[in-house]
Amino acid sequence: MGKKCPIRQLPVWLFFLAALSLLAGCAPTQQDTAGSSALPPDENMLRVGVSPFSPPLIFKQNNKIVGLEADLARELAKYTGKSLHFVELKWEDQIPALLDNRIDIIMSGMSVTPLRKMRLSFTIPYFKSAQMPLIRRKDAARFSTGLYSVETIGVIKGTTGEEFVETEFSSLKIKRYSDPHRAAKDLIKNEIDMFIYDAPMVLYLASENETKGLTVLYTFLKEEDLAWGIRKDNVELLESANNFLRTFNEAGNLNKVIKYWIPLAK
Question: 111: domain range?
Fold first, then answer.
């Protein structure tokens, strides 16, 4: 599917933390609703599963769901002529909710993996990400030649970051979190040695906690494609989402939205 995609694959990028600190929420382009309760299937509604704890991809600002994924969800709803309803879920509940028809699509920074493709369909990728370590600034020299002297690594449970750490650092202690902000707080308090998560979120956390001594280690541990998950039997929505991505990209709008939320992405 990736070879047929006309979207220009974005290379792994470099960020400047100062640029990330300038991020502000986009105003919604159309009326939408949000809540933790799923609504029944409705052909006139797009029910989007989100875990709004991962800025700048998807998070809450002034009690509104905002971020790269949120803006794309609003544009997708507009393209399909549907009303938009965000369904807030824990990350580990996203796929079960999709398979149970409690949501129509997962738009929450989900990486494409072979195991996930066994249970759901993915749209063509819209962004290339990577796993990246968040560390204390005072430890930067310690990791300059490699990830040595690490005892405890924090991850978000149910993510590809957790899978990567379990595979590559199986001898170390792994602490699992549901909220990346909790992991950042534990890193500040020296309760973990580093936190490994998707690069956009790690950079955002570093920006938020710059004055508290956190920074990033510019090491891309595992490159990943981000895409949207859809039930295998929902072929119509899959085709609509792919057509939207192609059209949105060809018009130059996809790159604009990406650069708004992730400045200097190439």
Answer: 2-124+228-261
